[in-house]
């Protein structure tokens, strides 16, 4: 079985881009990934693309062939949709195809246009990631759902709003030098605690923003990288996917995320590593509490222990295992369909040394955790420097 | 590499089911597939699910985990969306996973709820499979798009409305004994020619109906089939996928479908067969002209030759190579996300001998052709009796 190399990555700025369509955003991200890889368009054999709400935000489905065209690629193209894990799944399927010899060169990525819907419109569109019959029609939105998860966590394990605020402060701090980030601005714990409550116990700064943006990466086989003399030191050495019941009411408990636990177990086994081997992680912090749940699902911490990790400095830029050095969804932004592949892009740069925060990474192995809905879908990928 | 066996298949009735949700439809189809396979739910390792317009018709995205739950399956689940080829792509990815040893047992399928949108609403929703900026905003709908393709064909190769009508008559005739079909009623060439014109040269009976329905199949490895003593004589021995430019204006010509040609070439090479080996085919006849284009892309006929195939009796139930013995999209119906996997279900039954039209099949090899949009996405699968 071949290693799957990340030959190149590309991102647009994440933020408010009312003048740019989804295809325009993906054209830019894919152009950057192809240039970074040094791979000619004619060599791309397949596009795996993630998008979540295009039917609502741009009256546009069937985005696979549309985005192949935007990327200037003449190859079969498929859209994957697993809510906020859409491009995580797109990456996973491409990783399997390359390592199984189905193809040598895949373009992966995703894009989302959200701000044109406005805050209320995008919140309503995001709600299609939850169970329409049993959650959305009862009035549930995602801030409320994650607030329920935070309350369940606090009740079961303890934890405070201050500890969650430290996560937001950390991720804003990490984004300061990231040119792709929506917010390159520091906040304080007091800022976070003083912000309006959106769903008790979560305030405005516990939530990621509404974001337009796109991400892309070029995945190639070892053989292709060698034959074409590519500088591609980072490989995807493990992939895992987990699922859970869709609606919170059908879960056994709300303070843990079994879909992510399963995805992590599978990815670790696939790579032949354990959580202790991980030097750096990008995790799905759509809300601050989601970062806590992710770190416990990844088995970096026992249940109940991760809520204080940022406050204790363990996951900050100077900590032993920094988390979301990109700024995370919180400060870098969360263009839903682009997020999974953007984690791959950020981790690749962090590991190969050309990320503004690369100097905070002490090691050669990172993990990306991408979650859909209230973690009913999760992918985990292991990236390693192999050459 | 293992063979990929079709262990079981299941369909709902295709038609108007205003009282049934998408999850209800898929629960029924998957239950039938699991029972047909004799595979316990606990053995299902993955769900690959196709859906097209759920965000618009049911305000429901993220249908992977929702449908796993509907099927009673505790496994990672992914939604694939390639317009009308959504479950064709879902099948293809599962076929690759099984034959590459990623897993032994996959549930595949799809569902669509459309009639609750009404005729105008569903036509508008279907339009998201075309290019919103360059086609839909100019007033294009799918009947108009396929009418353009029909006119281009007639101009380049010749052909008549009567010849197209013979395709509709054939497919209605094939559906007479198919309990799953939306229309179990015969029509005549005169009926078709006298029907209202929807977009010159296409009349009402050149178009498939608006349909609610679901499909499912259980795919297993050879090893699993053997170890569990399954009666699963049919295998998927070839898979192919092709892509094309999204908008008709960007195509070199409208009278051929290169995406389908590429998918067919790849699937034939994968199975080590040629078009002359194919005894029976299910093809994507969303309009009568689409069946013509499919038969030429599958290389059953040279360009210009397929339009008269039904009129000449070559593709009818008594012909040498019957096409759409299920009734096709025209008479069986076209619940968009369910169609690709339903072709797999129909072909499996036709080949193993328990379909009402099995006696029309003279051979042990069939092909399924599933197309998205104006054939910007296509999958082709080869099915063979191997035991």
Largest sheet of chain A, if any? 9 strands, mixed
CATH class of chain A: Alpha Beta
**Level-2 CATH architecture of chain A:** 3-Layer(aba) Sandwich
Quote the CATH topology of chain A: Peroxisomal Thiolase, Chain A, domain 1
| Total helical segments of chain A | 13
What kind of oligomer do you see?
homodimer
Distance between the termini of chain A: 17 Å
Strand arrangement, major sheet of chain A: 3-2-4-7-1-8-11-10-9
Class of secondary structure makeup of chain A: alpha/beta
Helix content, binned percent of chain A: 25-40%
What string, H for helix and E for strand, traces the elements of chain A in order?
A: EHEHHEHEHHHHEEEHEHEHHHEE
Determine the strand fraction of chain A and express it as a percent band: 15-25%
Low-confidence regions of chain A: none
